[in-house]
Amino acid sequence: QVQLVESGGGLVQAGDSLRLSCAASGSIFGINMGWYRQAPGKQRDMVAIAYTGGYTDYADSVKGRFTVSRDNVKRMVYLQMNSLNPEDTAVYYCYAARSTRVDWGQGTQVTVSS
Question: How far apart are CA 89 and CA 81, in angstroms?
Answer without folding.
Answer: 12
